[in-house]
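User: I'm putting together a teaching handout on how multi-component assemblies are represented. Below are the sequence lines for each component of a complex, exactly as they appear in our records. Could you produce the 3D structure of the whole assembly as structure tokens, so the students can see both representations side by side? Please keep the chain order the same as the input.
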Amino acid sequence: MYRKQVRRRRAVLALLIVGSFVLLTLTYQGSRGLQSGVSTIFSPVQSVADRALKPARDLVDWFDKTFDARGENSRLKSELVTARTQAVAGQEALQENAQLRKLVELDRGPALASSPYKEVIGRVIYRSPTVWRSSVTIDVGSGDGVHVDDPVISGDGVVGRIASVEGGSSQVMLLTDHESAISGKVVPSGVQGVVKPEIGNPEDLILDFIDSTKLVHGGQTIVTAGWRAQGLASLFPPGLPVGEVTKASIEDQEAKEQVDVRPYADLRNLDLVQVLTGGSRG
Amino acid sequence: MILTPKILVRMIAIGLLGVLLQLSFFSRVELFHVSPDVLPALVVCLGLLGGSLTGAVSGFAIGFFVDCLLVEALGITSLVLLSIGYLAGLFRERFEIHSSLVPALLCMGLTLVAELGFAAVQLMLGINAPVSILIVRDMLLKSVYAFFLGWPTYLLIRRILRPALVEEPRVRRRPQPTVLGA
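Assistant: Of course. Below is the structure of the complete assembly, with chains in the same order as your input.
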């Protein structure tokens, strides 16, 4: 009797393991119908859960940020001195910018002003629980005009791109996902490269394949390059802020042709994002 | 565990609630830059209470549901969670749980195993980017969080599934009669 039980138990275990491998094979063959169905059914439930749990999330965030704030205080004080100097110079540029914007009647950001993109606002409803996959699910989908590969941005900068779309939800592959790679450009030097992630470190990206003959310095800004060549075009419009160069040693630039970049968008605490629909599909 | 339709419904409800709570709460909060993962702890608790078969099946089902909701490669989470569910069940079948610390410690240990398993599967499937050393911190902190999450999770699930649990009747100690003059 006991042996029969053990045999049955082992058979079920073997069946489940084989089932997992079959599912894995099916996924890599491109079959995602089942996932779409489940995701569509549960997306309204998740939307409600997301809103209901927001106060609890905010409470935990408050504790976490209080811990962080203590350590950051001294660093921020020194940054404030630098920022004040820059702000004075920036005021003048802002005034000039406001006048110019009025002149050309821009109601959108400079990177999007001349592009064919339309913005769709989405709210993050799920987040992947593992650091190996960096993705979030938002509550807008094909019904709202969202397509696969549409760029996704937040108020701070580029967040990622749409990886898959359902009726009322979409999966966003964040900049920190191992499959993510976008073409970036250092301003003002114009050095171009590919912005890639470092798995497990959401605060660090890498600008890879840069021209080692031109030096990049810490503090410089990386924006999307938005290239266009031989009928192909980048998914991202040019000039969207991506991040800031944090570490640019000469050794890394010459030997590895890369520099470290901190993304502007807070990819760990996303709530509202904008999907840029109607652009190029690569 | 005595599986009746009522208990099965309760277990499905536990799984659904656990996954929804993980994806919309635990995955989106961070303590020391790491998000807690309650799902391995949940599967370990189900395995500890229901045995190896229950642990494996619930691990597979919960993993499958997570992968479906996240529209990610099916089978990875199922494979990892079914393994730790089975291991937790085996522990329950072979050893006695004498201390209330055991479930929490098992949650911690098996969450670490799950994280290592997940890393191994992901690396085998191919990662096109450098891997940060911070991933070790993530794994260790997730295991520590699992210790604290495992305790209440175990007590809660035990309470919900109590009618189905086969428990040894507790041996009551009779008060020793007082012998006068001894």
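A couple of points students might notice: The mean pLDDT of chain A is 81. The radius of gyration of chain A is 23 Å.
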